[in-house]
Amino acid sequence: IGLQIGALKTGLRWMHGQTGWKALKGMVKVSSVLFEIMDTDSSGFLDRRECSKFQEIVASKCPLWDTDLSLYDSDGKRRLSKDELNKFLCVAYKTYGKREFLAQMILVTELLKFHIETSEPDEFADLREKDGCGCIIRLTEERGVLRSQLARLCSHIQRRCKREKWEDTCEGSPTVGQRLTTQTINLYQLVDKVIRPATEARMCSYVEYVAEGPQHPRWFVSHWWGEPVADFVACLNQHSKDRELSELDPYWVCAYANNQWDLEVELNADPAKSSFRRAMELSQGTVSIIDQDAVCFNRIWCCYEVWVSIYLRRSDEYKYDIYTVATTGAVGITDGCAEVDRRVEFPIDAKRKREMTFPMNLCRKALSIRLQDACASRELDRRCILNSIIGAPSLIATPPPEHERYEELNWTLRGLVAVATWRDAIETRQPMELHLAALSRSNLPKLEVSFDSSSLITDKGMKDLLATTTAGLQELNLDLSFCAAISDKTLHALSEAVRVPTGLRKVTLSFMVGAARPSPLTDTGLISFAKALPK
Known about the structure:
It is a single chain. This protein is α/β, with parallel strands linked by helices. It is built from 21 helices and ten strands. The protein has helices at 2-16, 20-38, 48-58, 82-96, 98-115, 147-160, 187-199, 206-210, 229-242, 254-257, 263-266, 275-282, 300-312, 347-355, 360-366, 379-390, 404-427, 433-442, 459-466, 488-497, 523-532; strands at 46-47, 79-80, 219-222, 251-252, 285-290, 319-326, 329-333, 446-450, 475-479, 506-510. Strand 5 (285-290), helix 13 (300-312) and strand 6 (319-326) form a beta-alpha-beta unit. Helix 1 (2-16) packs antiparallel against helix 2, helix 4 packs across helix 5 and helix 19 packs parallel to helix 20. The relative contact order is 0.06. The model has no long low-confidence stretch (mean pLDDT 88).
């Protein structure tokens, strides 16, 4: 039986490389081998019992087999011959199309392996849950990956990498020929060592290989393939804790969702119609994973994903988070307070403390991002993406070197990073020019900063911050508790700032004081500020 399953798989893979009548010619061989597998009593016919038993194994995951096979019993003898089974398969081929038909039939071979004893070793069995056999997920955007599936992948790497003395064999890699470790292997190398070998038999995506059904994404992940897989997984684990996600909340990751054997189908020439864009529209937010050198900010696909995230962010519900691995572990800058922050009395202060270890050198690189300078593995991708962003009539034309939409992304991302790192930049005495420019031109709808107990924030610093207020501001949240250097001058700056936004709807200010740290704020200053608020 094991040899027959192998022969069936070989026939299907041969059909995958053929077109027209040649593919249908291969169907005769495929149906003949399949007939032998189904004909368990070697009678030369398939009776109802044999058909039903086979359908019990495969029909739940392969819809083409969820049909009444007796419809193909042309002689009415309640049994199927080889020719009648071949006729059924040819009808299914025409109904589902070559690509879908072969995907389902290759899955049949996997399902048979789990129900019929064979002597074939499975090097990749530990990637799936016990008794798992994969599935078919037609829509690429529904191929999110669970953290438990990523954990099994990491365990697989640990089991094999050192034992088999893996080496980097990726062409063009700066470490080609060098030994790989569990902590340094990246996605380029993982696709070469695990993802493609594991999915080769079925020619499917990695998620379809390990999942048992569609996994609708909760979050979309934007990242560069060159970062270590271990860092990537650490960031998602920390993000899930901060956002209080469950084990069943999937992340959409291109390398695992896209079929690495059929990328031409997965990647549309128009980025707006790609699997990336469709997955983002199903998600509640994007989390960007920043590698140690911030290469992701120089990759055109990553920049496109950030642009779409910022476009979708105009809705209050879509979030954009940024995570990386610092010396103390994974840390992230979240879009507003994360769910874990809201469990304490002062969420904005909890957010600041959680984010304070985010590496400042990466922040400064983000403050200098230029979408139009990003590169791509293929020049055509760069052209299509830039033209898609500016709404050009032709996606393949040479895009303009500068455009207002490029700058919209540049300044919005810079502004998000500037707000999140404002206090830390002051307290580490960083030059503030990039922060001030970013915030004044980003037109962010929300400004949240905690200066709780800061001894370095002054009236001058607050005046500079508030001078960046733009017309698009809708919410202002400042925590100035126990800031002894803050006086009525800051309240005057606030009075001027709240007059600028045209849609300001919420202002939250915290001025907690204590005997040990008296505040120079006065009732007169607060009353003056209150009168300045828009009616």
